[in-house]
Amino acid sequence: MEEFKPEDMMHPPMDQLQGFEYCIDSNPSWGEAIALGFQHYILALGTAVMIPTFLVPLMGGNDGDKVRVVQTLLFVGGINTLLQTLFGTRLPTVIGGSYAFIVPIISIIHDSNLTQITDDHTRFLQTMRAIQGALIVSSSIQIILGYSQLWGICSRFFSPLGMVPVVALVGFGLFDRGFPLVGKCVETGVPMLILFIAFSQYMKHMHARHVPILERFALVMSIIVIWIYAYILTASGAYRHRPEITQVHCRVDKSNLISSAPWIKIPYPLQWGAPTFDAGHAFGMMAAALVSLIESTGGYKAAARLASATPPPAYVLSRGIGWQGIGLLLDGLFGTSTGSTVSVENVGLLGITRVGSRRVIQISAGFMIFFSILGKFGALFASIPFTIFAAVYCVLFGLVAAVGLSFLQFTNMNSMRNLFIAGVSLFLGLSVPEYFEQFTTSAQHGPAHTNAGWFNDFINTIFSSPPTVALIVAVVLDNTLDYKDTAKDRGMPWWVKFRTFKGDSRNEEFYTLPFNLNRFFPPA
């Protein structure tokens, strides 16, 4: 038997993830790119429908209001995606609705000045205007931190070790939107999960005209199969005598989106009326803007890895956050009912398809804008049951989390210090938000419950976000615990060359602005 050599087990660290058919600046054929862009659009529908479906009824809105909010969220998401891929980080990231804003939005909905309004539609409009005002003010946080390069300066304290729990919990932190939702309708959720894994992994080598058709389009193909299956179950009366909550999650005709959607409707700024401004609402929303900023930072790091690009330099990261602030401003002006962030599920889809092309994401932004205007057609796709999306999330969120763990290859994991920091930050990143979630569910208010509503919103929002808690713990420990002689163990020698735009020659290829705009905005 051949003698075992330790070096045979070595897998050298790689700046760029290998095995991708198309990276950030290479493009598939136009036909394939359009099909892949449509697939990203379908995936983005999950969050675009889930958030308004939860919030609009609480605000007093009806099905017609919900459809308009979904259309607006998709329309603005398409614009923000184009802005981000053209002028922001230039990474292939879809910008969609964010759950980070739910806590301050719920606080606004329960404001006594709004709850006393008796007419539901009037209450919906007044609540929407209050949310808009808070979003407009909170956008200043990201705009200032981004364009002033302050966030880039802060990112210099982030090491590969410190980023591991942040990026990992961008995926793992969304576990409650995975199988807990699949379990609400196992008849469609479990088959969808099995079929998606089978198509994308076990049957990925099946080719048609030299294209791995099942690997590329596993998502849309499995959705079509399970959607037809769910329609057959609905039409055959399988859920006729089931509880109402089961019917909502299983039937394909319970969303009321198609019947309520107009044929053509173009969202426009201030369509709900003039925004109203309240200092307390704005402070709470600023906390959500900070959380969105941190979660997006993790999303950008993961997207760079899954687009086979180098990590975004501090200057590029700040530029992206600045444009994300502009996107948050647009959310407030148009009235999307929530803020925006990087769509984690779409980042995961880059890895499943092995296509990290920027053009594909820009095409998906075009679909988001197009189908948000053609209401009936967009509502048809948006009526896909939530459990189908949840089954896909189980795979895509897990893949993004694994990308975060892959940063450990640049660190010394035989160091007790590193094991301590990684373990504690990962555990607290999951445990602290879970405590806040359970406390809120049982007490109907967050652990922070003082007479200062803005303070409550700030604390409850910050500590309900797994990536935010992980960032706080990891960065503090990493920069205070035996940090003087541990640069190599932390992975800093590898990381340092990607801090500046000119630190690595590949940065120019991946992150240079289009239309020769770098002449007017030279990178730092």
Automatic annotation (TrEMBL):
| Domain of life, source organism | Eukaryota
In which broad location class does this protein mainly occur, judging by the first location in its UniProt entry? membrane
Q: Got a GO cellular component term for this one?
A: membrane
Supply one GO molecular-function term.
Answer: transmembrane transporter activity
Where do the TM regions start and end?
Answer: 38-57, 69-87, 93-109, 130-151, 157-175, 182-201, 213-232, 360-382, 388-407
One Pfam family of this chain? Xan_ur_permease
**Keyword Aminoacyl-tRNA synthetase: yes or no?**
no
Kindly indicate whether the keyword Membrane belongs to this entry.
yes
The entry's keywords: Membrane, Transmembrane, Transmembrane helix
| InterPro entries given in the database record | MetI-like_sf (IPR035906), NCS2 (IPR006043)
Its subcellular locations are: Membrane
Q: How does it sit in the membrane?
A: Multi-pass membrane protein
UniProt record similarity statement: Belongs to the nucleobase:cation symporter-2 (NCS2) (TC 2.A.40) family.
Entries under PANTHER family matching the protein: XANTHINE-URACIL / VITAMIN C PERMEASE FAMILY MEMBER
User: What name goes with this protein?
Assistant: Nucleobase-ascorbate transporter 2
Per the UniProt record, the source organism is Acorus gramineus (Dwarf sweet flag)
